Amino acid sequence: MDIIIVGFGAIGKGVAKVLYEKREYLKKNFEEFRVVAITDSSGAAIDEDGLDLLKAIEVKEKTGKIKNYPEKGKEISSIDVIRNVDADVVVEVTPSNLETGEPAKTHILESFKNKKHVVTANKGPLALCYRELIEEAKKYNVIFRHEASVGGAMPIINLAKETLAGNEILSIRGILNGTTNYILTKMEKEGLDFETALKEAKELGIAETDPTQDIEGLDTAAKIVILANSIMGMNKTIKDVKVKGIKRITPEALFLANKRGYTIKLIGQIKDGYLIVEPMLVPIDSPLNVKGTLNVAMFETDLAKEVVVVGRGAGPIETASAILSDLIHIYQATKR
Ligand SMILES: NC(=O)C1=CN([C@@H]2O[C@H](COP(=O)(O)OP(=O)(O)OC[C@H]3O[C@@H](n4cnc5c(N)ncnc54)[C@H](OP(=O)(O)O)[C@@H]3O)[C@@H](O)[C@H]2O)C=CC1
Ligand SMILES: N[C@@H](CC=O)C(=O)O
Ligand code: NA
């Protein structure tokens, strides 16, 4: 299967690393998964026989630009790569823009038009124009998967759509942002100040390109919109969410909450048609009290009743895990 990676930051490089590390497993169980092009904001590296992924990562880390890939690197836009390079799937991992959805929206729609399946971790277009994307994918008869867009590695979208198929999801409540959960955990357990904890989150590659999206609760808001639309049949946008972030939470507030048997978590919830994101007191022994980059989601369903999932909500390799599973799904649906 031939893949184009659009965006070569923390997640794009994570996907390349995982495809390299899993190459024998993939070849043995499915077929060779070749990356035929990688783009970033500087240009692209293109090799229709498959790029050397370790070399691509090394070039990006040393020079900051994928166009410096020896012989196969050049200045070209992602759109031109999507249009002109032969491939089965586009992995779209540019920054999440929660105002316009661009450039990801155009990348995704252009992939569909060019008969390429899409896997994305990008929340922008999903939170702004979910229906349009689904309709366009249908129109061009291509597969569109986005497990990594909510909860990173934590199975949630495909779990609800496939494993819990037939159930009605009545409500969802959970922690859907790894960065803020990491910051709150560090403040609570180590008394770390907000800025130092945020700096660590950035170094781990878990924060958004613009980390105010994490801190102000907008990333969680985008994720609950994606859940509302993709697994609860709603038609919401980010403007429908009441949002409050964690900027005012201090180590002292966490200490006081702990003394009373509680912790403070940034909770996203969908209930009775309302979408809310806000820091909430959570009992210490609640299943919602997960630490670090872990995410958690509690579903209430009509048949299965309560279902709780926990998993790593952010991080390059963890997010690449969800992307890989979507790629394997596409292989199984189209090539087997
Ligand atoms: N980090 C995480 O743990 C998770 C992230 N996500 C989502 O995954 C996506 C990627 O995140 P992350 O890798 O952390 O972000 P980064 O900021 O690390 O990387 C973004 C990449 O996109 C590139 N880019 C920007 N504009 C374009 C363009 N027009 N064409 C091609 N490439 C472009 C940047 O190029 P350049 O390098 O030249 O600046 C960079 O390589 C985001 O949508 C994010 O919300 C989802 C789940 C978890
Ligand atoms: N910045 C996000 C990344 C995953 O979506 C987070 O911290 O959860
Ligand atoms: Na997920």
UniProtKB/TrEMBL annotation:
Residues 7-146 form the Aspartate/homoserine dehydrogenase NAD-binding domain. NADPH binds at residue 123. The active site is at residue 223. Pfam families: Homoserine_dh, NAD_binding_3. The keyword Amino-acid biosynthesis applies. Its EC number is 1.1.1.3. Pathway: Amino-acid biosynthesis; L-methionine biosynthesis via de novo pathway; L-homoserine from L-aspartate: step 3/3; Amino-acid biosynthesis; L-threonine biosynthesis; L-threonine from L-aspartate: step 3/5. SUPFAM superfamilies: Glyceraldehyde-3-phosphate dehydrogenase-like, C-terminal domain, NAD(P)-binding Rossmann-fold domains. Keywords: Amino-acid biosynthesis, Methionine biosynthesis, NADP, Oxidoreductase, Threonine biosynthesis. L-homoserine binds at residue 208. Residues 155-328 form the Homoserine dehydrogenase catalytic domain. Gene3D superfamilies: Dihydrodipicolinate Reductase, domain 2, NAD(P)-binding Rossmann-like Domain. PROSITE patterns: HOMOSER_DHGENASE. InterPro entries: Asp/hSer_DH_NAD-bd, HDH_cat, HDH_CS, HDH_short, NAD(P)-bd_dom_sf. It is an enzyme of class 1 (oxidoreductase). GO terms for molecular function: homoserine dehydrogenase activity; NADP binding. NADP(+) binds at residues 7-12. One of its GO terms (biological process) is threonine biosynthetic process. PANTHER family: HOMOSERINE DEHYDROGENASE. Belongs to the homoserine dehydrogenase family. This is Homoserine dehydrogenase.
